[in-house]
Structures are given as C-alpha cells and as structure tokens.
Input
Amino acid sequence: MTWTFKAFALKTQGRAVHPEWEAEQVSAEVQRIHAEIGQAGPDPLTAYVQ
Output
C-alpha cells in the first residue's frame, strides 16, 4: 500500500468516524496519526496543489 493511499484511507476513516468534523480537523488528526506511527510528512493529496 502506498503512502498516498494510506493518507487517503485515514482521511476517509476520519470523516466516517467524525462526520461532524471540518476538513481541517480531519487533516489535523491524520497528521497526528502519521506523527505517532512515524510517517509524518506533507499531505500528498494537497501539499503540491497550487
């Protein structure tokens, strides 16, 4: 499974578990999870969008 797919999966799971959360809250939670599991880095789905 690629890192991009994992990031997408975490965001999808976050939205499913917390449908009331704003996009920023879901992204912050994904970043916290990545930091905990040692995969902290830019979000590949949004980091390079200009």
Remarks:
- The CA atoms of residues 31 and 37 lie 10 Å apart.
